[in-house]
Amino acid sequence: MLLVVGCLLGLTLIGGVAIAQRSSGGHSAAVEPGNVAASPMEQTSPLPVDPPAKPTPSGGASASSGTKPVTVPVSGPGTFTTAKASGKVVGTGGPLRRYQVQVEDGSGVSAEQAADDIQTILSDPRSWAAHGKGRFQLVTGNADVTIKIATPRNTDKLCASVGDTGGELNCEVAGGVIVNLKRWVTGSPQYDGPPAEYRHLIINHEIGHLIGYHRHMACPGAGKLAPVMMQQIKGLDGCKSNAWPFTASGTFVSGPSVP
What we know:
The chain is 16% helix and 14% strand. The protein has 259 residues and is of the alpha/beta class. The chain has a single domain, classed as Collagenase (Catalytic Domain), CATH 3.40.390. Strands 3, 4, 5, 6, 7 and 8 form a 6-stranded mixed β-sheet that branches.
């Protein structure tokens, strides 16, 4: 989802990874913010609920929040504010990845709040970090990974080297994760929960790509939990939506590998 162009994905939390073709698990060059052409901020009317036209990358979904439509900027200046926030190392094992969180200017999202949300996600006992898959630390500089929250149009530009996000999806690129503002704010119609919970799926999916889960997974069976590495925005195939790689009891939620 979730640059990795993954099924959803992806906590504004951590930033960065590389993958050439999300489907093949290759790696691509990092996309720098300076490569994003500046454009005036545009406001959309209430976002329609429709599936992504080309769900090549990682997850995202469109729509409105609750009964009140949400207005999200379609594009912005392509400049980002880095969260002035730092935290302790979380995780029980694996390589340490220092990440910083950046939010596109004019998006209406606080960089500090986004960083706090992502740190909370990575610190959860159901997360990758809690099960020895890696250690993570929120920093303001000298980061190994950059997690950017960008407007849909600039997400497409930043993710172009790894796939077509179609204004709907998130991705993982060399050195970071790109989170589509639309997905961060409105969530996904495929996810049974509020947009705030869908953010967990975004972050966990894209971080999963970052730590080595390059292939997507499919539903393991009707009524079972969907793997976090499944492109849930494209449909659940009988599974129950799920935003975490592990259950509360520590069981890894897996499924058949998608070629």
